[in-house]
Amino acid sequence: MLKGKTVVLGVTGSIAAYKIVDLASSLKKLHADVHVIMTKNALNFITPITFETITGNKCLVDTFDRNFEFNVEHVSLAKKADIFLVAPASANVIGKIASGICDDMLTTTLFACTKKKLIAPAMNTNMYLNPILQDNLEKLKKYGYEIIEPADGILACGDTGKGRLVGVDVLLDRIIYHIGYDKDLKGKNVLISAGPTVEAIDPVRFITNHSSGKMGYSIANKAYLRGANVTIVSGPVKEKAYEGINIINITSAKSMFDVIKDNYKSFDYIIMAAAVADYTPISVAENKIKKSDSNLNLELTRTNDILKFLGENKLPNQKIIGFSMETENLIENSKAKLAKKNADMICANSINNKNTGFMVDTNLVTLIKKDEIKELPFDTKENIANGILDEIKTL
């Protein structure tokens, strides 16, 4: 994902410096070229050799270190960088950056860098809330720096409050967002439904399906990384969405329909990836359940056909994409669904293989349009999500 990208990590004097070891490792696994610059105070918490072992690059500390190839090191690394993250960022370093002070390798290289710069503060709560520190952060925002706000929790000093360095996953997400993908969907508003719906029988029992939401969330995450403004209408799932994606949690098919009906006009692309129940129980027939018999006699009613509603009420230039899951006649049934629902594309999902469909990370999808049928290669749902988005752009 980050092959050919150069990430520069600036590490300052904070107990949270150990987290950046995991971040550097995660970046290397994504094939990024990772360089670490440490302040002298950071050496009190972690040694340069730790970063050098993980990244394969010399960890820089001294601005006037002569043990490197002859060039102006802070300038050459600044030019090479695709993104520069200072984490953990101490109050001292934040103050120096905001004041234009370049007195070490980290601040000097940062000032020479013209690419995206991120600051992730970590410090005592009272230090973080100090109005001088807050003024410095606002000043950095004005100059285009992105501030990754610290988390709440128990701090190393024993205090509780805001000041903890955010998790490695958050830092990694922000780096991937900025340099992982071209922003070819920037300005597009995308609504995606994902996961199952749950239809209550009574206060204890319910009807649902095996949908994990993996496909829908993969599409949502990739659309976000490609610059779209993304909203997920999600049934109960365990999947994770990137920070910055708006998630509307629902339970039943009716609640999903109501949310989409109220909001669909605001979106350029609507992708119905959820496994929505066709029926919902009206009641349980009384006195039909014996102690030795768990069968339920249910009175059912059809749920709202969300895809049909969207097709019938589609706005000009709005694109509607549906999903289908069939055990037989996949292509024929999907073509019929495309016409009947007035959709722009149907993603036909194969479920005849243990490695496709529900609860797995891979899939086999055929894209059905009015004038074209295109089978995507068997792949991970993340890669298939990009293939689906590529095709949506051509509609």
Explain the overall architecture:
The protein is an alpha/beta fold. The chain has 2 domains: 6-179, Rossmann fold (3-Layer(aba) Sandwich); 189-392, Rossmann fold. The protein is built from 13 helices and 21 strands. The protein has helices at 19-29, 48-55, 73-80, 91-99, 105-112, 125-129, 131-142, 168-179, 214-225, 253-263, 306-312, 330-341, 381-392; strands at 6-11, 33-38, 83-89, 116-121, 146-147, 151-154, 160-164, 189-194, 199-200, 206-207, 229-234, 246-249, 269-272, 279-284, 298-302, 319-326, 345-350, 362-363, 365-369, 372-375, 379-380. The strands form 6 sheets. The protein has an 8-stranded mixed beta sheet, sandwiched between helices. The chain has a 5-stranded parallel beta sheet with strand order 2-1-3-4-5, sandwiched between helices. Strands 6-7 form a two-stranded antiparallel sheet. The longest helix has 12 residues, at 131-142. The chain is elongated, with a radius of gyration of 26 Å. It starts with 5 loop residues before the first strand and ends with a helix.
Quick description:
Helix content is 32%, strand content 25%. The chain is an alpha/beta fold.
Q: What structural class is derived from the secondary structure elements?
A: alpha/beta
The amount of helix comes to 25-40%
The structural domain count equals 2
Total count of strands:
21
Record the strand order, biggest sheet.
12-11-8-13-16-17-19-20
List the helices and strands and how they pair.
Blueprint: E1 6-11, H1 19-29, E2 33-38, H2 48-55, H3 73-80, E3 83-89, H4 91-99, H5 105-112, E4 116-121, H6 125-129, H7 131-142, E5 146-147, E6 151-154, E7 160-164, H8 168-179, E8 189-194, E9 199-200, E10 206-207, H9 214-225, E11 229-234, E12 246-249, H10 253-263, E13 269-272, E14 279-284, E15 298-302, H11 306-312, E16 319-326, H12 330-341, E17 345-350, E18 362-363, E19 365-369, E20 372-375, E21 379-380, H13 381-392
Parallel strand pairs: 1-2, 1-3, 3-4, 4-5, 8-11, 8-13, 11-12, 13-16, 16-17
Antiparallel strand pairs: 6-7, 9-10, 14-15, 17-19, 18-21, 19-20
Helix pairs in contact: 1-2, 1-8, 3-5, 4-7, 9-13
